[in-house]
Amino acid sequence: MKALFLGAVLGVLLLWPPALSLTAALAAKPVIVAFGLGLAARPAIARRLRRWTT
Q1: How far is residue 12's CA from residue 1's CA, in Å, rounded to a whole number?
Q2: Helix 17-27 × helix 2-15 angle, to 10°
Q3: What angle do CA 25, 33, 51 make, to 5 degrees?
Q4: How many of the other CB atoms lie within 10 Å of CB of 19?
Q5: Between the CA atoms of 44, 46, 49 and 54, what dihedral angle is there, to the nearest 10 degrees?
Q6: In this predicted structure, what is the pLDDT of residue 39?
Q7: Phi, psi of 16 (to 5 degrees)
Q8: Structure confidence at residue 54 (pLDDT)
Q9: 23 Cβ contact partners less than 8 Å away, ≥ 6 residues apart
Q10: What are the CA-CA distances from residue 34 to residues 21, 24, 38 (Å)?
Q11: Helices (H), 1-54
Q12: Within a 10 A sphere around the Cβ of 42, how many other Cβ atoms?
């Protein structure tokens, strides 16, 4: 599922060039980058916490 999502995002960035400049502008903001990384890491953290509590 992650590979499919990554492929779709890369396809949009290649086929629609303004999206690339928007992505670069968002990546320049540390708060947005940290929020995105937090969303990406949340499932892994939840699994680890579930193992610790059981």
Answers
A1: 17
A2: 110
A3: 160
A4: 13
A5: -110
A6: 83
A7: -125, 85
A8: 63
A9: 13
A10: 19, 15, 6
A11: 2-15, 17-27, 30-53
A12: 10
